[in-house]
Design brief:
single chain, mainly alpha, Endonuclease Iii, domain 2, Endonuclease III, domain 1, 13 helices, 61% helix, 0% strand, globular
């Protein structure tokens, strides 16, 4: 069963209000950042390829590489499979990411079906593709599918924001942060948005592409 879909800034405001009432530290973050933006993106092949491009590079680097990928027209499965590796490397992809891009292009994902799949099934289907781990799958569910109750606890900026906001001695690891986030359901995506916004304000840099 598909849960709540984030479709407007009003949805984000509703979720942020719920979180601020449920957890005083989110109220503190909200006062500093305001309601986090919706940040919806199109779904489909290009969105997942962009997420792969963003792995393990800075926000600025990811944007620059993606601009070259788009400029070369390498945003469809057919285009990626039709070119030699050198063309993908010239766009800024590492050898490993070239392999991931080709695997994604050949995976035959039914993107229409993903829109109707439950959150857990979306993640389970996507992580079968080489190069798509839980972080990428969860980011896709959050931003491209607009799922309201997904979290990406392996994200370093979310971990650092949680450390700062909750005054933790150390940055929480993936399992610990996933456990913390259960209390933020059914608005975990909005909680992530608040944490990213808090990270941006406190660190004066972006935490997600």
């Amino acid at each position: 069963m598909v849960g709540r879909i984030l479709q407007s800034e009003a949805c984000m405001a509703e979720g942020a209000d719920w979180l601020a009432r449920a957890e005083p530290r989110f109220a503190k973050a909200l006062a500093r950042t305001g309601v986090p933006p919706l940040r919806r993106r199109p779904d489909g092949f290009a969105a997942l390829l962009s997420a792969i491009v963003s792995q393990q590079v800075s926000v600025a680097a990811a944007r620059a590489i993606w601009a070259r990928v788009e400029g070369a027209g390498l945003v469809t499965p057919e285009a990626v499979l039709a070119v030699e590796e050198e063309a993908l490397r010239a766009a800024g992809l590492s050898r490993q990411k070239v392999r991931y891009a080709r695997a994604l292009a050949g995976a035959g994902i039914d993107f229409d079906a993903l829109r109707a799949a439950p959150d857990a099934e979306v993640v389970a289907r996507l992580v079968k593709v080489p190069g798509i781990g839980r972080w990428t799958a969860e980011i896709y569910a959050m931003f491209s599918l607009g799922r309201a109750d997904v979290f990406a606890p392996n994200d370093l900026a979310l971990q650092e924001a949680a450390r700062m906001l909750f005054a933790l001695d150390a940055r929480p690891r993936e399992a610990a942060l996933r456990g913390m986030a259960t209390a933020w359901s059914p608005w975990r995506t909005v909680a992530a948005g608040l944490l990213w916004a808090y990270y941006r304000v406190e660190k004066e840099r972006e935490g997600v592409a």
